[in-house]
Design brief:
By secondary structure, the chain is of the alpha/beta class.
């Protein structure tokens, strides 16, 4: 606790917060006895802490975990869900700790490999117009004309008619900036971001990398960043990277360091995303290129392929096309147009549909084996004969470009053939956004807790999981179940109350409508009318949160000229610019209102006059059409359980806690929340959600009256 005391003593304008000290003490006592490394009967601990807004949780967990790690000569991995929190940790919290702690320490930001350029790919393309470049671009969907983005505009104002010419000009400029030291190879350090399609061609990727056998290894931007991480005692990462790196050695072994998962309520969704899979059933041009690439690479190295890859690729393409035709017939049968989702009940796929997936898996697995065997031989050649390393690396990169799509086919078809219990969600999706009908097959586990318990918590020895929204309806039970922490003996929980006096500082007004929210159109009409009346009384800053883009657009369409001048709508401009305009308006004494969706309901910090009122259009239930949630609800019903009470209500309660949390951001804020959904007070499940909210002064408003803000 000595490090914590020094941090708070050195914080300008610090106010004593008993909750922050309580949090630090719990972390210190929980993690003090964990055993790290390869030991018999190791001692583990996971402390789950909900820290209300204003507690100062980052100072509490950093001061304690870093001090413990330094004393034990180990490291700390701090994992977040948002870039904003990563920036806060790297530019504010960690420098503040380093300035006052006795033992010096190094901290660094971990990024995925794809955020860095591959020098070998870039050099291959830069200044190289010819068959090599055309081959790398083959299969890309190019616009007819575009401009070289960002700082790299060698001829500003020139519109490139030839897409390849445009891209090669970009790569030449990137290569020049890299070689002269003007750029470090990190995509995030570019003044403006390249288009995703342009960057992916030169990005570092695991599938295209021969690591230490590459001739550019000693100057590789990614591995230089890895070397900096190796010197750091504190590593800031994100949940995606931590879960994707399990067993990959990109981060410290989780059984030999301390781990903090801030914004921990995101872990279940990240886990589902990491272990889901998808494959395209219509965009198959890459399969024409695959056997040609395998044969050419083998011939270049004087090798003979064990399999007939041309026949395998043709068989795989035929099976994928057959699956695509069957999928299109199923989607057409929904009578909802071509943009639709067809989910298989209980994860059971009819044998007629499953048959091509069996063929897909067999052919794709054989091709994958051929690709991996050839890649292994290239790595062995590079190791044995350094004079061949450059050519081996180039050839390996050519193979690697094929690997991700082939891997997605192997994993997706394997999941479709799975008969696990609980069943996987399996669905087909059609999309016409490109102007053509595209069909894809998807699969995803439905219980995130099982994934996290099996893949994450079995490795972790000492961890802190924290957020301002881990309890729902007044309990940790839902979160512990979703994260796989329920009933584990090493888990303890703590709820630290916010230092804010919500009853004195805030109000929660439930503004009734005559229509029931389930009467969607009528409710939306009445809600928008009440909202517009309330907006006319806004004198400073306000935030309106909608549950759907359609609902938000109805409100935008109803604005008259005077209100249009006040309202800023999410999506009209970049988020940073929108927030800057909002702040400038309020600081100049003008009224300003932000219309936003789910992403504006979390992590948005608008203190004081910037947000005196949060308007909530409707209780934030998830859309009922999500295939994973549908599949999980179906499984729960089949098991005799109630998905609405067990899943929907607690998940909505967490969102509602986040949304209402935009109102009061400091001890001096005075703000109110106005929710137009009367179910919050009139239903049992609404009152359950209310129990999980801060103790606002709650009142009800009849439909006929208008609140004066």
């Amino acid at each position: 606790m000595a490090a914590f005391d020094r941090v708070v003593a050195a914080t300008p304008g610090f106010r004593a917060r008993s909750g922050q000290r309580e949090m630090a003490q719990r972390i210190a006592s929980s993690l003090h006895g964990v055993t790290l490394g390869d030991q018999d009967n190791p001692q583990s601990a996971v402390t789950v802490i909900q820290a209300g807004t204003g507690v100062g949780k980052s100072a509490a967990y950093l001061s304690t975990t870093v001090a413990l790690a330094l004393a034990r000569k180990t490291r700390v991995v701090v994992s977040t869900a948002t870039v904003a929190l990563q920036e806060q940790l790297m530019t504010k919290d960690l420098p503040a700790l380093a300035a006052v702690i006795d033992t010096p320490f190094v901290y660094a930001l971990a990024k995925g490999r794809g955020r860095y350029v591959c020098k070998l790919k870039l050099e291959r393309l830069a200044g190289h117009v010819g068959e090599d470049a055309a081959e790398l671009f083959e299969g890309d969907d190019e616009p007819t004309a575009a401009q070289v983005p960002g700082t790299f505009k060698p001829n500003r104002g020139v519109v490139w008619q030839d897409p390849m010419e445009r891209r090669l000009a970009l790569y030449e400029t990137l290569a020049s900036s890299l070689s002269t030291g003007q750029w470090d190879g990190d995509r995030d350090s570019l003044a403006e971001q390249p288009e995703a399609r342009d960057w992916s061609t030169v990005a570092a990727e695991r599938h295209t990398c021969t690591a230490r056998y590459c001739p550019r290894f000693s100057t590789c931007s990614y591995y230089q960043a890895r070397m900096q991480l190796a010197q750091a005692q504190v590593i800031v990462a994100n949940h995606d990277l931590v879960l994707a790196s399990l067993g990959m050695k990109a981060l410290p072994d989780l059984d030999n360091c301390l781990v903090v998962f801030d914004e921990g309520h995101h872990l279940p969704a990240v886990a589902l995303d990491q272990f889901s899979s998808a494959m395209d059933l219509t965009g198959l041009r890459w399969l024409d290129k695959l056997p040609k690439t395998l044969v050419e690479v083998a011939d270049n190295m004087g090798l003979v392929l064990a399999q007939d890859v041309s026949t395998l690729a043709q068989q795989l393409k035929t099976a994928l096309l057959d699956a695509g035709r069957l999928a299109l017939e199923l989607v057409r049968g929904l009578s909802t147009g071509y943009d639709a989702v067809y989910r298989f009940k209980d994860g059971l796929v009819p044998e007629a549909v499953l048959e091509p997936f069996k063929l897909i898996h067999g052919h794709a697995a054989a091709l994958s084996d051929a690709l991996e065997a050839l890649g292994a031989e290239l790595k062995a050649r590079a190791k044995e004969d350094p004079s061949q390393a450059a050519n081996c690396s180039v050839q390996y990169a050519r193979l690697g470009q094929m690997a991700p799509k082939l891997s997605s086919v192997v994993s997706t078809s394997a999941q479709w053939l799975s008969s696990d219990e609980p069943p996987l969600a399996k669905w087909l999706k059609s999309d016409t956004s490109s102007g053509l009908v595209s069909i894809s097959a998807h699969a995803c586990p439905i219980v995130p807790g099982d994934l996290l318990r099996r893949h994450l918590w079995q490795q972790v020895r000492g961890a802190v999981v924290t957020s301002a929204s881990l309890t729902t309806c007044g309990s940790f039970d839902f979160f512990l179940g979703e994260t796989g922490l329920a009933d584990l003996p090493q888990v303890n929980t703590l709820a630290v109350e916010s230092p804010f006096d919500y009853r004195a500082q805030g109000q929660l007004v439930v503004a009734d409508t005559a229509a029931d929210p389930k009467q969607v159109d009528l409710y939306t009409t009445q809600m928008v009318a009440a909202l517009l009346a309330d907006l006319r009384a806004v004198s400073h800053g306000a935030l309106v949160l909608f549950t759907s883009r359609v609902q938000m657009q109805v409100a935008v369409n109803a604005l008259d000229a005077s209100l249009l001048e006040l309202v800023l709508v999410q999506g009209q401009m970049a988020r940073g610019r929108l927030l800057g305009i909002h702040q400038a308006r309020v600081e100049s004494g003008r009224a300003s209102v932000i219309f936003g969706l789910q992403s504006f309901g979390e992590g948005l910090d608008l203190p004081g006059l910037l947000c005196e009122t949060v308007f909530i259009a409707k209780l934030p239930f998830s859309p009922p059409s999500d295939p994973v949630e549908e599949a999980r609800a179906e499984w729960l019903k089949r098991s005799g359980r109630d998905p609405f009470s067990e899943l929907v209500v607690p998940a909505t309660g967490i969102k509602l806690l986040q949304w209402t949390g935009r109102a009061i951001r400091s001890e001096t804020d005075l703000a109110r929340v106005i929710c137009y959904d009367k179910r919050l007070l009139s239903t049992g499940y609404g009152r359950r959600m209310l129990q999980g909210l801060p103790p606002y002064a709650v009142s009800r408003r009849a439909p006929e009256t208008v609140l004066v803000v």
